Amino acid sequence: MKLDNFKSDLVILGRTGLLALQALWAYKIRSLFVIISVSLGIASLTVIIAAHDGANQKAEELTESFGPDAVLVLGGDIFNRPVGQRTLTLSWNDLKQIKRSLPGTYLVVPLRSVSGKTIRYKNKNWNVSRIIGTSANYSEAWNWPLISGRDFTQADVTQALKVCLIGETVANALFSKNESPVSKTIFVGSIPFTVIGELSHRGYSGGSGTSLDDRIIVPLTTLAQRFGADRQYFRGLRIKYIDAENMQANVDNLTSFLRHLHKLKPGEPDDFTILSAEEVQQFLSTLKGGLTIFLGVTAATAMIVGGFVLANLFYLSVSERTLEIGLKRAIGASKGAIVRQFLFEAVLLTIIGGLLGIVMGIALARVLFIFNLIEIRLSLKIFLSALGAAMAVGLIFGLSPARQAAELDPISALRGDG
Fold it and tell me: Is the pTM of the predicted complex or chain greater than 0.70?
C-alpha cells in the first residue's frame, strides 16, 4: 500500500512539474525577467559565501604563517600617519638595544626592501617585484621553510656576501622543473649572486595582494652596499618571543621600550607600528565584514526585487489564466492543488534562477580571485545555501498569487468574470 501511494505521489509530482514547465514556457519573457532578477541575487550570495569562507581560511593561514609568538614592528604609524611623517624610524641602535635589553626575545631580524630589478640566469630573464634585505635566520623568523639549501648565517651578513634566497615564483621563472637553483649564480642587474636556498610557497599578502613568492632575499649589508639602501635605518623588525602565552604583555613592553629609545614624550603618537597575529586577524575581519555587508545588501536587494517581480507577474498570470483555473476547479481540482501548481511554478522559476546565479557567482568569484581582490573557497555550502534562498523567494513571493488563484470562483472564472 505504501509503495502504491509513493508511486501515485511521484506521478502527481511529475504531472505537476510538466504543467509548470508548460506554463512557464507559455510566458517565457516574464519567466526570463524573474530568472535574471533571482540569479543576480544568488550570484551575490554565492560570492559572499565563497569570499567569507575564503577569508576565514586566509586568516587561519596568515595567523599560522605570521606566528602566534611573533610581532612585526614597522617604522611610522601606518594606520594614523600624518602627512610627511617619516617611515624610516627604526635604527640599528633599536635592533641592538632590543636584542640586549628586552626580556623574552630570542630572534630579532631586521627588514628593508628596494624595488625589483631584472634578474637573469643564462638566457632567462625575470622582473622580480622586490629585493629584501635581512639578517641571519630569516626563514626561522618568518616561519617560512626552505625547500632546499640553507638560511643566512651571521657571516653572510657581516661580510656582506653576494648570496641570496629566492621565492617560488623566481625559481619557476629562471629554472627548469627538475633543476635545483641552489649553488647556481644568477645576475641581479649586473651583480652576480649565488643562490643558497629556495623558499617554499607562501602565496599572496593579505594586505597588499602582492605575491610573496616573487622576491629575492639578500643580506641587509649587501642590500646597502650594492643597491643603495639606507645604512642607518630599516623598514621593519621581526621579533619572536619565548613566551607566546602573554603576547599582549610583550607588545606593551616593546611599545614602552621603543618610545623610550625614540625619546617620545607622553601624549606624543608612536612613530612605529606593532603588528601581532591578533592585529592581522582583526584587520582581515574588518575587511571581511565590509565585503559581507556590501554584498549582503546587494544580494538581499536583488532577491527582494526578484521576488516582487515574480509576485507581480504571477498576479498578472492569474488574471490571464482564469479560464484554465476555472476548468481545473470544475473537473474536481481542489484549492490546495491550485496553490501547489502555482507554488511549483514559482519555485521552479527561482531554482532555475538560483542555478544560473551559482554559475554567475562562481565565475565572478574566480575573476576577483585572479585579480587578487578576494580569497575564495568553494564548498557544498554555497550550492545548498543558494538553492535554499532561491526556493524561499519562490515560496514567500509566490504564495499570495497562488492563494488568489485558488480562491477564484469556478463559475465566474469559466465565464471570464474572475
Answer: no
